[in-house]
Amino acid sequence: MATEIEVSPEVANKIRTCDMSRYAVIFATAIFGSVLHYFLISNYIEIIVIDAAFVLLVLLIRRWHDAILGLVLCTQYQYEVHNFICVSREELQKEFYLRVTEFYRDLVQKNEDLTKFKKESQKTMLELNQENERLLKENERLLDELKNFGVG
Question: Residue 146: which domain range?
């Protein structure tokens, strides 16, 4: 199961360089093996021994590459942890106070907005109540006129 790790651009460059060096060594070894096969060695047992040595060399290069890659990633991790630990207590307290202050300001602003909305709502409700009372009085007046009109 593979684990994805985010690395910095510097570490990515080191990994890329390590890959390139591994492939360069494998390519050079393949050329060297080809030269030995076709031009220098005539005995089949020697060819088999050279092929086995070539395979072992490729496996060794793979292990060397993985070890360097692990060292690079471990160094990056230690660097990031070291940078995190190097933050002083005062800086952490300052950051904490800044965030609390920012949170408090946001809270006060939201409270002011809510109070403003509440006042506007009360004003609107008062206007609606006054309009309702006016309409009720108008309705009563019209009913009285209707009764007077029907009686007369």
Answer: 89-152
Cβ atoms within 10 Å of 94's Cβ, excluding its own: 11
Q: What is the pLDDT of residue 77?
A: 55
* Range of weakest confidence among 1-15, 27-41, 83-97: 1-15
Q: For 18-37, what is the mean pLDDT?
A: 71
Q: Which pLDDT score, from 0 to 100, does residue 116 have?
A: 93
Our count of domains for the chain comes to 2
User: Do 79 and 49 fall within a single domain?
Assistant: yes
More confident residue, 94 or 42: 94
Q: Region 59-70: what's the mean pLDDT? A: 68
The interaxial angle of helices 9-35 and 44-85, nearest 10 deg, is 170
CA distance 35 to 52: 16
Q: How many CB atoms lie within 10 A of CB 97?
A: 10
Q: Are residues 99 and 122 in the same domain?
A: yes
Cα separation, 56 vs 150, in Å, equals: 118
Shared domain check, 93 and 133: yes
- At CB < 8 A and 24+ separation, what contacts does 59-67 make? 61/22, 61/25, 61/26, 61/29, 62/22, 64/22, 65/18, 65/19, 65/21, 65/22
